[in-house]
Amino acid sequence: MAILNTPSEQGDGPERRRAPRRPLEEVPGVTGVTVHAERVDVVNAASGGLLVQSSRPLRPGTRTFLEIARTDGRINISGHVIRSEVSTISSAGVKYCSAIAFERRLEFIDEQPEPSSVEQPAAYIDLAGFVGASDWSLGEPILLNDW
């Protein structure tokens, strides 16, 4: 497999990003992205756009249509392809890496998930089946740190 033009090797000058990039897994509620009916791999996401990897090239300067799947529904948005280049060549085929700028910002992508207000319990174990466990109800969990 060949990997071409990785972002760290491209010395394109000063940083021009307006929003932080993050993996799609870190964006709350987003489950996937489709570009022109093809499910794509998102390299990173920001409120202003996405960097995606797909099996089809996207022509720079063209308008494109995206569907962002969320746990609470779908968002349809258009954008413009900023750049597109071959990212990998393998026996499975060619993959293209394309930067897409949204026509409007999606601020929820930059929002940080709210920390859980529920304290995560330590490990639990069901002791009802053990000898001498008559003090506990059947199936009642015991916090190991309480021993």
Provide an overview of this structure.
Helices cover 0% and strands 44% of the residues. With 147 residues, it is mostly beta strands. It is globular.
What labels would you give this structure?
147 residues; mainly beta; Thrombin, subunit H; globular
User: CATH class of the largest domain, anyone?
Assistant: Mainly Beta
Q: Look up the CATH topology of the largest domain.
A: Thrombin, subunit H
One letter per element, helices H and strands E, the order comes to EEEEEEEEE
C-alpha geometry: globular
CATH architectural group of the largest domain: Beta Barrel
Share of β-strand residues? 35-45%
Strand line-up of the largest beta sheet: 2-3-4-7-6-5
Radius of gyration: 23 Å
Oligomer: single chain
Helix/strand structural class: mainly beta
Mean pLDDT: 78
Helical run tally: 0
Number of domains as seen in the coordinates: 2
Helix content: under 10%
Mind describing the biggest β-sheet? 6 strands, antiparallel, barrel
Distance from N terminus to C terminus (CA atoms, Å) equals 54 Å
Q: How many individual β-strands?
A: 9
pLDDT < 50 stretches: 6-11
